[in-house]
Write a structure and sequence with these properties.
It is a single chain. The protein is about 55% helix and about 20% strand. The chain has about 240 residues and is α+β, with helices and mostly antiparallel strands. Helix 1 (about 1-25) packs antiparallel against helix 2 and helix 4 (about 90-105) packs antiparallel against helix 5. It holds the Pfam family MgtC_SapB_C. It is found in: Cell inner membrane; Cell membrane.
């Protein structure tokens, strides 16, 4: 029984190292040591159920608690940075490493090795496939991007500029969100008009057309727009 225990633990350790090496080489939040510990720890918990003789029901119950615990651990590596979510793939890798450890602890070595191979293929081969898909044109992608459009004009031209912006933004496929003004300088001689809108990236040329039209106005001194991070369109 002792030899069987060491064999199960070594199998979990080896699978954890294989998965962790790939994460470590990519400098991810959870690298070699973390993933190896997750796989080995999951194996130890499940092996406890085997050693205490609680049967299949006991092992299954312990495995369920392992999944819950790894869920909290995975949440710790997920971060939000400037509107985008980072670390979801690493959290999923931790979850899979725990599953591999559970399989090793239960003595199912072939499924454990198969799971390790699948994780490695997913994080390497499918990674390159994802990059290839992301570099394709965005015309067919179901995305929405928020844009901030700014115009600086004379105080007496503010109403005219606001009306032009409102009329330009009212036509589809532009989704007009807000329109605001603020004084530039203490004398209030210059006004900055800011419009916020949402638009599919493939229609970005429409913003340039609006900017060109406004730049020809006599009282306008500058026109510009900035695109924020694109996000999937709501279903």
């Amino acid at each position: 029984m002792t030899l069987d225990f060491f064999f199960r633990l070594f199998a979990a350790f080896a699978c954890g190292v294989a998965i962790g090496l790939e994460r470590q080489m990519r400098q991810r939040t959870a690298g070699l040591r973390t993933i190896t510990l997750v796989a080995s720890g999951a194996c130890l918990f499940v092996t406890l159920g085997v050693l205490t003789g609680n049967g299949t029901a006991g092992v299954t119950q312990i495995a369920a608690y392992v999944v819950s615990g790894v869920g909290f651990l995975g949440g710790g590596v997920i971060m939000r940075d400037k509107g985008s979510i980072q670390g979801i793939n690493t959290a999923a890798t931790l979850w899979c490493a725990a599953a591999v450890g559970v399989l090793c602890g239960a003595g199912h070595f072939v499924p454990a090795v198969s799971g390790t191979v699948i994780v490695l293929v997913t994080n390497t081969v499918l990674r390159e496939l994802s990059r290839f898909i992301n570099t394709t044109p965005v015309d067919s992608a179901d995305l929405i991007r928020e844009y901030v459009f700014t115009v600086v004009c004379r105080e007496q031209d503010e109403v005219h500029v606001r009306a032009m912006l409102a009329n330009a933004m009212a036509s589809g496929p532009l989704s007009f969100q807000s329109l605001s003004s603020r004084d530039l300088g203490e004398d209030g001689a210059r006004i900055e008009v800011t419009a916020t809108l949402q638009l599919h990236p493939k229609y970005q040329h429409m913003l340039e057309q609006i900017a060109s039209r406004l730049s020809m106005e006599k009282g306008v001194s500058s026109v510009g727009w900035t695109g924020l991070t694109a996000e999937p369109a709501p279903e």
